[in-house]
Amino acid sequence: MEHSGDRVTLGLEEVFALARSVLAAAGLPERQAVPVARVITEGQRDECHSHGLFRLPGCVQTINHPRFNRAAIPVVEDTTAAVTKVDAQFGYSLPALEAAMPLFVEKARAVGISVLAINNCFHFSALWPEIEMLTAKGLSAIAMTPSHSWVAPAGGKRGALGTNPIAFGWPRRNADGSPRDPYVFDFATSAIARGDMSLHKMAGKPLQEGWAIDAGGNPTTDAAAGLEGAMLTFGGHKGSALSTMVELLAGPLIADMTSLESMEFDDGVKAAPAHGEILIAFDPAVLGGGTRDNQASSERLFAEIAGQGARLPSSRRYEARARSLVHGVSIPRHLYDQIQALPRA
Ligand code: NDP
Ligand code: PYC
Known about the structure:
By secondary structure, the chain is an alpha+beta fold. The protein has 13 helices and 14 strands. The protein has two domains: 1-64 and 315-345, Malate/L-lactate/L-sulpholactate dehydrogenase, four-helix barrel (Hypothetical Oxidoreductase Yiak, Chain: A, domain 1, Orthogonal Bundle), CATH 1.10.1530; 74-314, 2-Layer Sandwich (Ribosomal Protein S8, Chain: A, domain 1), CATH 3.30.1370.60.
């Protein structure tokens, strides 16, 4: 660990150990604390500041929610040839995902398409780590989850939708067949993620126009006013419809809560949202049927995009990852001090 001015540099093992120890002191058993500490470390490593160590105080608050189940042991159900369900029992989503992953992947390979419904989970994490687990197995995948109803629909005045991320991944290989960084995008369907909006508030940074409205329904660029009022979707009515799709597919379709219901369930505690998540995995080897070289045509597309000077999503993240693996991560001293003030095991 190094202190320099208003920054503190930590090695990745230090980030993981710190997160794990704070979670353990808050009463989270190892089987939940380890995957949560891992995803926080991955978020910080890839410089996804809204879903790294910044989340740790909120995780402690979530563990203390009267409806959070510290003793949760996920229950995996082998539903049909293509469908797996896992009940997180109101613990975090991540241990449930881990428990269901082998069956979920096995079905994608057997059937070509596989759906995983995670039910009854508290959820705070970025979706790309889950997508990367699937692309590493040669699968293409989509993941979606609601959150709390902080986001107004296009033309509306108050929160009805969640920040509702959509993540997608496509596996990639080098010419010699060795794996390379996959094509992955992962974004909130709100114009800005809630976590990022809180970071704007903490840094005293204004929001861009069109990101939020205040409690009176008026446009605002003040992050505090936006957090009190409502966030807006990206892309107007298009983002609003995509966000509604996430609500329906990761909520009613899998018999779980919408963002409106998650907010009610929270009962004013301001913990992480509680609801479901849907993941869909596709096996290109089955769906492509070997009739076309699906790697060659996807690589041609990526080369055309990059050749125009446009960047592929996740390229910033992969560069940050390479840097962090060598140099560790740098976080603001105020965040470090806030975490140091939390009890540790
Ligand atoms: P960003 O807007 O930071 O990034 C969205 C995606 O677009 C990333 O894949 C990013 O790649 C890519 N991207 C950004 N700029 C460009 C560009 N100029 N050209 C090409 N691609 C680009 O994400 P959000 O702030 O919307 O979301 C952040 C995280 O928050 C996500 O990981 C999401 O899962 C998480 N989240 C989780 C929620 C939950 O309920 N669990 C709710 C809402 C959000 P890169 O990373 O390389 O910049
Ligand atoms: O940043 O919008 C967000 C968010 C909600 C739940 C987890 N992250």
